[in-house]
Design brief:
The chain is mainly beta. The chain is built from no helices and six strands. Strands 1, 2, 3, 4, 5 and 6 form a six-stranded antiparallel β-sheet that branches.
């Protein structure tokens, strides 16, 4: 059974530095758009209403020119 470790609603954000963690991160984009960058030079464009799932131990960063808001939690 999964345990939710953390839930937070973010204000408008433009950049999240490169990082990784040892748990799943689930992000629901509530406003804006941006690009999620991964360690293997892959990227995913996202926009309002989409859900992003990042597996454990995957290095990633997040950038947006217009800003984004999200609710995210970890498992």
């Amino acid at each position: 059974m999964a345990i939710i470790n953390y839930i937070e609603k973010h204000l408008t954000t433009f950049t999240v530095k490169t990082h990784k963690h040892d748990y799943w991160e689930i992000i629901y984009v509530t406003d804006g758009e941006g690009v999620l960058h991964f360690e293997n030079n892959q990227q995913i464009n996202y926009k309002k209403g989409e859900i992003l799932c990042i597996p454990p131990n995957l290095t990633h960063s997040n950038k947006s020119f217009v800003g984004f808001k999200n609710i995210h939690f970890t498992l």
